[in-house]
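Entry type: protein chain
Record version: 2
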Amino acid sequence: MSFLEMKEIHTFYGKSHVLQGISMTLERGDFVCILGRNGVGKTTTLHSIMGFLKPKVGSILFKSKELIGKEPFQIARMGIGLVPETRRIFSSLTVEENLIMGIKGKGDEQTFVRDSWTLDKIYHFFPKLKERKNQKGSKLSGGEQQMLTIVRTLMGNPEILLVDEPTEGLAPLIAKTVVDMLEDINKSGVTVLLVEQNFKAAIKLARMFYLMGKGKIVFYGDGHSLLAAEDLRKQYLEV
């Protein structure tokens, strides 16, 4: 049984049929990327996993437990964390206060994490945030806000991190810092499912790729296979 498995997921926004039979799997420790243009259903896929949207058909299993029907807070306590594209930091709170807000309350579904993320561990791995710990969120650059959003989610000690467009709108050098951060997080043992449009960033990070067309998976394979699939990339990625 896979660590996370989606089977024939159909998700709707009102009458709009956004996901049309999506299936994908992640194994523990994977770094997997969903690629595709705007509007094809990438974010909807993450929101379906996280419980913000309720698929009408299909199954989503995390460690053999069904996620469909559970509320987002229950899914978070099971060990899945979402880094939203919109960041949603608390601008009036300091960096450290934002991080503390990421700590999950205890519940029956909470996963035991042997080597948990604490403030000390966060500051050890990401010293730039330690330097900024007393700064208000509103004073951070876009790249620093993105780093804070990712690390705040880590404070909930997820086993899987769902990351939505983390390099969107960032300068290339800052985007590289965020990419390096995600790589370090994955190396620490956290499974990562990344949604991205930036093919050049993604190809350096992920080990396996799903390419989405309009609500459907049109390709699954490793980086070498995706690089070789030039016609598919032109059709579904390039502008």
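Comment: The chain has one domain: 4-236.
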